[in-house]
């Protein structure tokens, strides 16, 4: 899906349902769609802020305007990529609010990464365990562990309305990048299956439009990843290939600017297939396991 025509509703506070509002950050790109969507959950009696986004003055000012005089009871981060969590600390200082949510994570791998780098400044007041809840006046958020895109990824379920805030685990505009070594395809697929077993009414992703038919959408995502896996096995059955040899064939017609990100997910598939004994490698060259 390409980017929609401008103007985008950057900085505007949009009401999505009685307990949910959204403010779009000014960081649109081919990797973030129109930008990171920060969600305000609750009412003037007390709010939770989900994915405060980048530490960008205009975005923080828009969030403060949307919050008004409402007490901020929690600032929740789904994961620690730089387009999601850096705004947590300055917003916490301004609103005297605790930072809750995913565990901190920073990797020093020396590898070139196609997705956003990790936020090394993220320091939560409390890490939420799977199933742990945050409560406010008239609302309850439950943490749902969904590793895969990153090992520390959480979704947040709004129990009162059946909404699920899916961060980057499920996006409304594109498939999610799964970038090793922290991203793990087996974990990602298991997390998709976990959400498929739930009965959420609607998904609110950090990027792209809301998903109004979640289980149908998840079936498509799971099917897409399984198709990519079969495609890799078929191509390797024809001849040995590197990741950079697979990507142009698998993603023919896709903007070449996105090929590095696609290559990360292809590598994640290969590592999963290797663990399952279906492929092997010699250096950078992959082949069907003998």
Automatic annotation (TrEMBL):
Signal peptide: none annotated. Keywords: Hydrolase. GO terms for molecular function: hydrolase activity. Its EC number is 3.-.-.-. It holds the Pfam family WHD_BLACT. Residues 35-207 form the Metallo-beta-lactamase domain. This is Polyketide biosynthesis zinc-dependent hydrolase BaeB.
């Amino acid at each position: 899906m390409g980017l929609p025509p401008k103007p985008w509703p950057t900085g505007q506070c949009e009401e999505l349902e009685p307990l949910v509002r959204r403010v779009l950050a000014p960081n649109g790109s081919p990797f973030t769609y129109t930008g990171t969507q920060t969600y305000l959950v609750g009412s003037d009696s007390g709010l939770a802020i989900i994915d405060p986004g980048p530490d960008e003055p205009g975005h923080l000012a828009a969030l403060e305007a949307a919050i008004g005089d409402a007490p901020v009871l929690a600032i929740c981060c789904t994961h620690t990529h730089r387009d999601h969590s850096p705004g947590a600390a300055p917003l916490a200082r301004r609103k005297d609010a605790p930072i809750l949510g995913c565990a901190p994570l920073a990797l020093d791998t020396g590898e070139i990464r196609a997705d956003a780098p990790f936020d090394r400044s993220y320091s939560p007041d409390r890490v939420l365990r799977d199933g742990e809840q945050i409560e406010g006046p008239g609302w309850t958020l439950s943490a749902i562990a969904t590793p895969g895109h990153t090992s520390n990824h959480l979704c947040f379920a709004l129990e009162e309305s059946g909404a699920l805030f899916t961060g980057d685990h499920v996006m409304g505009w594109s498939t999610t990048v799964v970038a090793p070594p922290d991203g793990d395809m087996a974990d990602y697929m298991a997390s998709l299956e976990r959400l498929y077993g739930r009965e959420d009414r609607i998904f609110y992703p950090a990027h792209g439009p809301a998903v109004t038919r979640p289980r149908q959408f998840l079936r498509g995502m799971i099917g897409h990843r399984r198709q990519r896996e079969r495609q890799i096995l078929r191509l390797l059955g024809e001849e040995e290939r590197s990741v950079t040899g697979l990507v142009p064939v698998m993603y023919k017609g896709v903007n070449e600017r996105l090929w590095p990100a696609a290559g990360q997910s292809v590598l994640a598939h290969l590592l999963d297939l290797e663990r399952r004994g279906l492929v092997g490698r010699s250096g950078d060259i992959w082949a069907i396991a003998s």
